[in-house]
User: Fold this.
Amino acid sequence: MTVLFWDIDGTLLTTGRAGMFAWNDSVKEVTGQDFDLRTQVRIAGMTDYQIAARTFDVVGVRPEGDLLERMVRRYEELLPASLPLRVGGVLPNVREILERLRSRPDVRSYLLTGNTRGGARAKLAHYNLTEFFPDGAFAEDAGDRSSIARRALELAKRAAPVAEERLFVIGDTPHDIECANAISARTIAVATGGYTLDELQAHQPWRAFAELPPVEDFVALIDGHPRPGPGDPAHSTSA
Assistant:
C-alpha cells in the first residue's frame, strides 16, 4: 500500500489568506484586542494552536483557563463565512492527481495538517476536495507537527500495512519535511506556499518542485519510476 499524507494550505490549495478575517475577528471577540494576522505572525507551517499561542504572546494576554481553546473554536465557526472574501483556489495539478489516485486501490491519501479538524473541513468543502480524503491527522493542541505526523501514521497503519519506502508527505514548508523525517517518510516538497524552492531544498527533502508535477510525472514518482525533465531547475535529486 502506498500512503500519501497531504498538507492543506500552500500544498492542496490557497485561500488567498481569507482565514485572516476569521482569525482577526476571533482574537477581537475573545481578547478584546485588535490584531492583524497578515503582519504580526509568520504562520507558514505553524499549527492553528501554535498560531493561537503566538497570537496571545503578541497581544499580551495570558491564555488562562480555556481561553486558547475558545479562540480556536471561534475561528472555526467564523471560517466558512470568511473564505469567500478572498480569491483562492486549488493549486496546479492537485485535482488531477487526486482524481487519478482515487481510482487506485493500492494508494491511500490522508490529510496531515496543522489545521484543526473543523478548519480543514471548512477549507476542503469550500474548494470541493472533501471527497478525496477519508480521514487524517489534525492539530489538537499546541504540540509540534511531528506529533500530528505520528498520529497520521497510526491512522494509516490501522487501515493497512505500511512500508516506509511507500510512505510520502506532500507539503510546502520545512515543517512538513520535519514531519516526514519523524515518521521515516519521503517528502515531496512544493514551493507553492510561504517558502521558496531554495529554502525547501536547504532542508533536504526527498524531492522538491516549484509546483506539483503533472499527474503522469507524479504517479511515476510515487511508483518508483521518476521521470525528471532534462534541465528542469525545479527538480531536486536530493536523496
About this structure: The chain has two domains: 2-15+88-222, 19-85. The chain is about 40% helix and 15% strand.
